[in-house]
Write a structure and sequence with these properties.
The N and C termini lie far apart (about 45 Å). The protein is of the alpha/beta class. Helix 1 runs parallel beside helix 2 and helix 7 crosses helix 9. The strands form 3 sheets. The chain has an 8-stranded mixed beta sheet, sandwiched between helices. The protein has 11 helices and 14 strands. The mean pLDDT is about 95. It is globular. Helix 1 links the parallel strand 1 and strand 2. The relative contact order is 0.14. It has a domain of about 100 residues.
Length: about 350
Amino acid sequence: MTDISLIIPSFNRAGALFEVLESVAGVVDPSDPVEIIVVDNGSVDHTAGICREIKDRFAKHNWHYFYDETPGLLTGRHLGAKEAQGEILAFLDDDVLLAPSWLDALKDAFSYPDVMLVGGPSFPRYDVGPPFWLVGQWVEYEGGRLCGALSLIDLGPAKKDCDPLHVWGLNLSIRKVAFEACGGFHPDCVPKPLQRYQGDGETGLAHKIKLQGLRALYHPEAAVKHMIPASRLTPESFEQRGFYQGVCDSYTAIRRDRAPAGRRGSWKDLLRPVKWKIERELILRNPTTNGVRRLMARAHCAGMQFHQKEVQNDPKLLEWILKPDYFDYRLPDGWAQYLGKRKAA
């Protein structure tokens, strides 16, 4: 019987995926009651070939490969959960490496019958040295620290109960019964042309777990290393992250309030485009801690403004945002046109 289903959604990241799957094979023994599920989210690189190569190389492991081209991380997460045979669903991103202690820590955490959700540290593995201004992105929290823009978190060396909101999707494990009872994930990592369909991903699931009073546990040995390429260590990348977070936060607010809220946050920067254009160029040329924070703050407002406007102009979009769950993992009409353009390119 399979106790743990390890689920790795992937999209056009074959190079990193090979290293990730090697890491998994090094931690999971073939005798462990673990299945490893890779969901290919419509990749056009050699992801399928990488999965075949890994399966041949580690033939005694319990590998499964599924393909679905519907855009968005939700596809991989929910298809993986649907196909999973395990009682524990362990979701990993396709750019994390497992610590040798990861699987034993997971087993230890779920040995407590009332633990429903488990997370652990995410440490950085930078491809290049991090910029000096990155220090300003870290937030101190409960004896540890976190950097949300890079999905890095370290809540200290002790095993302890934690806020479900601090179990992040790159390293999130949950009992299948709780996953289904709480309605699964919300949309996440939607391609930019379909940004209006972006949701709040694991944040939405965490809110539902928290609302039901279910127990979440942080285990320091359930650790991963997050591969961070040079492209993610630029002011432009952090600005994009701010916009993305603004869209996510707008989605969260709409589901909470059951309606768009109109103008939210500070809009003064958005009303001075000429002045901001000059200031932005100066920040990009000479980034500082406060400058990058300002980039992200303004982008966050712009993301919220974009999403709120889209919802106000389209009642069907509001209806889709307020769906009880997304277990069908299908986007509304329009995503097929995106796929057609992508294939044509």
